């Protein structure tokens, strides 16, 4: 059995790994080291929390006594500064050193900081951790007009929450469409119209040139002359995996730390999972994937050989009075057949992408009742051999999927 397992980073991937380890190995010493000053908490509850009773205790992933009950030595407020892979040793921010037999790196990601002049002004925020959420919460009464930079899922969720609490919101997106990774042009247009019905202004194809104001933000410049007034900016412009920790080591990286299907890196006894882990050339940055990878890493660390089965990412948005689902590949160029159905109310939309008799992706806006059929067909790679795809409608295809269940 392994003597000492050290886990760097204390998010959901870490917790799931600990559970998997303890299923198999009750004896190993487990060290959990996290930079934030909080015990592991649910990051996905932060956005909604900014208008709620937000505190560490309300969103903990596990009660604090759970760690002692499971023999986990917890170090919070402790950044791991470097790794010596020859001596199997970590250097902590206070200068102390910790030895490991097996190491799991689950350092997650940070929000991308767009290179905009003025991004460091007061009342300019980005939401990644509990500290950010508490800071945003404490200055919300100063922010009546809020500009959200970034029209991806997180930016939109934030805009909706702010709007529901009486804030005047403008969304600015650099690319020509909202949720560019999950929606095609038409779906994005439909979503944009739905959002604009709430009198939320959306500017796509628009870059922020500068954030203006003295110590605190007073507006943003969207070209040399146009200034949009605001008293708060929240930006949400993608993520960057926290991989600096391995920068002077032989651990192989690309966008993140490269792992195989056991979540092991190129260095024996060093594993990675969650937002930091790059598997099959991709970093997905989703909660359920961090859970699945953390579990696989945990089992393999104990010696129980387990393979990570790739998960097709699913994005859902429930906001602006509408539900939205996007899954898999939504690139028409990679599809041999595309089925589309748009409601006459111009508020509903279904698009299914088929490649070689398999559904590879789908977008649904509006009625979600039959989305699970699409999810299951994509996940199980169901073969549509008996379906004549030439003249079939979206609903007829969904009927066939239902009957084939
Ligand atoms: C506001 C918000 C809402 C989200 N909503 C959703 C959602 O609805 N659905 C969904 O699927 N995903 C969502 N996500 C993404 C999801 O939260 C992440 O995919 C998930 O948290 C990744 O888990 P992780 O354990 O890999 O890393 P993280 O949760 O990022 O945890 C990593 C931890 O490691 C620490 N760390 C980093 N470097 C060091 C170091 N050198 N030393 C010590 N500690 C270190 C970090 O401080 C952090 O606490 C959301 C993310 C945010 C920010």
UniProtKB/TrEMBL annotation:
Name the domain of life this protein comes from. Bacteria
Q: Which cofactor does it need?
A: FAD
Is Oxidoreductase set as a keyword in this record?
yes
- Keyword tags: FAD, Flavoprotein, Oxidoreductase
- Could you cite one Gene Ontology molecular function of this protein? nitrite reductase [NAD(P)H] activity
Q: Where is the FAD/NAD(P)-binding domain?
A: 4-294
Domain NADH-rubredoxin oxidoreductase C-terminal, by residue range, is: 313-382
Q: What is this protein called?
A: Nitrite reductase
């Amino acid at each position: 059995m392994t003597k000492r397992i050290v886990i760097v980073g204390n998010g959901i991937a870490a917790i799931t790994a600990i559970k998997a380890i303890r299923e198999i190995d009750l004896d190993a010493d487990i060290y959990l080291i996290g930079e934030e000053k909080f015990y592991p908490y649910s990051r996905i509850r932060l956005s909604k929390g900014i208008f709620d009773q937000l505190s560490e205790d309300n969103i903990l992933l596990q009660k604090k006594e759970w760690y002692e009950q499971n023999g986990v030595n917890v170090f919070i407020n402790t950044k791991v500064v470097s790794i010596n892979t020859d001596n199997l040793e970590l250097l902590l921010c206070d200068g102390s050193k910790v030895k490991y037999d097996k190491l799991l790196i689950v350092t997650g990601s940070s929000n991308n900081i767009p290179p905009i002049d003025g991004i460091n002004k007061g009342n300019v925020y980005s939401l990644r951790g509990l500290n950010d959420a508490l800071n945003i919460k404490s200055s919300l009464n100063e922010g009546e007009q809020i500009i959200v930079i970034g029209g991806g899922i997180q930016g939109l969720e934030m805009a909706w929450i702010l709007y529901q609490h009486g804030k005047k919101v403008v969304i600015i997106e650099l690319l020509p469409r909202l949720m560019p990774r999950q929606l095609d042009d038409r779906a994005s247009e439909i979503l944009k119209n739905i959002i604009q019905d709430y009198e939320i202004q959306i500017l796509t194809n628009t870059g922020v040139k500068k954030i203006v104001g003295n110590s605190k933000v007073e507006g943003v410049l969207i070209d040399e002359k146009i200034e949009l007034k605001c008293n708060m900016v929240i930006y949400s412009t993608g993520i960057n995996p926290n991989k600096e920790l391995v920068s002077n080591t032989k651990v192989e990286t690309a966008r993140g730390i490269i792992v195989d299907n056991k979540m092991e890196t190129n260095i024996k006894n060093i594993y990675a999972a969650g937002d930091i882990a790059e598997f099959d050339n991709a970093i997905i940055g989703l909660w359920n994937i961090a859970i699945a990878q953390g579990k696989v890493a945990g089992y393999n660390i104990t010696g129980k050989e387990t393979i990570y089965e790739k998960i097709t990412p699913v994005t859902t948005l429930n906001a602006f009075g509408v539900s939205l689902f996007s899954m898999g590949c939504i690139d028409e160029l990679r599809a041999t057949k595309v089925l589309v159905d748009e409601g006459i109310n111009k508020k509903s939309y279904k698009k299914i992408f088929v490649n070689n008799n398999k559904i590879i992706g789908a977008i649904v806006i509006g009625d979600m009742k039959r989305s699970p059929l699409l999810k299951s067909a994509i996940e199980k790679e169901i073969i549509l051999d008996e379906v004549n795809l030439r003249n079939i409608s979206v609903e007829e295809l969904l009927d066939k999927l239902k009957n084939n269940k």
